[in-house]
Design a protein that fits this description.
8-stranded mixed sheet, 12 strands, alpha/beta, 24% strand, Rossmann fold, disordered N terminus, two-stranded antiparallel sheet, binds S-adenosylmethionine
């Protein structure tokens, strides 16, 4: 079985001539960039000075306000990551979904999969409470926007996608955005493989975020989570998962235990399935 069949990074694509040269139009990233959170006008003026599109800045602000009202984001660093991320770029696969980038709902991004909605992403991101310097693994790169939020929280973001052409499309998008000036996406390492087995060579991880649904917590992912680490994962039967926060705890005697907490208090949240790679082909799911 070939679990890992493709790894690509900025350098590899650039060397292959695949990263198109775009003039940098966006003010490059720094950890000191802090978008205003006091008024819509101030936020838009700040974003415009960074080089962003005013229409989408307004939509980003309005969705951010809804996230705060709904308690889907509640801390300053997650708020900052939402306000800095050009969500519209990750919905740019076609015009129809591009203009819907800031809607509540998930969006069809092709390949039979979706880009999760901003409220769900906000809550899952806030729950894992990523601190600068921590190593985070995402399973299910999809559109790339979830890892983009993580890239504003730490420089050590790893993301795995099982659909190789989708992984490649999103890798190329990151590279285009980096060339445009969104240098924060250099914090993201990508891989096309079956995420059930994690990313062994980069483990252990402080945090893991799984964005596809499965009926159990994959043992390799739990194993690659640090003691004291936290995973957020949709667990349950097909189309009827509950989003769990799983904490891995090491007792004084060295014994490992886990705790589980439903981040929606029992609400069912359907996710696309956690599929399986067999001999390089996606074949069924990892459900038991
Ligand atoms: C809800 S979608 C995308 C969510 C994504 N984080 C985003 O923001 O667009 C879940 C993704 O998980 C991927 N996926 C499913 N099974 C997987 C596996 N075994 N390993 C890695 N990715 C997987 C799907 O192909 C899909 O792209």
């Amino acid at each position: 079985m070939n679990r890992r069949h493709f790894i690509a990074g900025t350098a590899a694509l650039a060397a292959a001539g695949a990263a198109p040269a775009h003039a940098s139009t966006i003010k490059p990233y720094s950890w000191e960039l802090n978008p205003p959170t006091d008024t819509r006008d101030n936020f838009i003026a700040w974003g415009r000075a960074r080089g962003e599109d005013v229409t989408f800045l307004g939509q980003r602000w309005d969705r951010f306000q809804a996230l705060v009202r709904n308690k889907d984001v509640w801390d300053a660093k997650t708020s900052r990551s939402f306000l800095l991320t050009p969500r519209e770029e990750f919905a740019s696969v076609n015009q129809a979904i591009h203009k819907r980038a800031y809607e509540h709902n998930f969006l069809d991004i092709g390949f039979g999969v979706t880009m999760s909605g901003p409220h769900l992403q906000g809550r899952m991101t806030n729950v894992i409470d990523v601190k600068l310097g921590e190593k985070v693994l995402e399973i299910g790169t999809g559109s790339g926007v979830q890892a983009a939020y993580l890239a504003n929280l730490t420089e050590n973001t790893y993301t795995i996608e099982i659909i190789a052409p989708l992984a490649q499309r999103t890798r190329q998008l990151y590279d285009r955005l980096i060339a445009k000036g969104y240098t924060e996406f250099q914090h993201i390492k990508t891989q096309a493989s079956d995420g059930y087995y994690g990313w062994e060579s980069a483990a252990p991880f402080d945090k893991i975020i799984v964005t596809c649904g499965i009926d159990h917590v994959p043992p390799p992912l739990l194993q690659q989570l640090k003691a004291g680490g936290v995973m957020v994962i949709p667990v349950g039967p097909p189309g009827a998962q509950r989003v769990l926060k799983v904490a891995k705890i090491q007792g004084a005697d060295g014994a490992i235990t886990t705790t589980r907490e439903d981040i929606y208090g029992g609400k069912i949240v359907p996710f696309v399935p956690f599929t399986k790679l067999v001999d390089g082909k996606i074949t069924g799911t990892h459900n038991r």
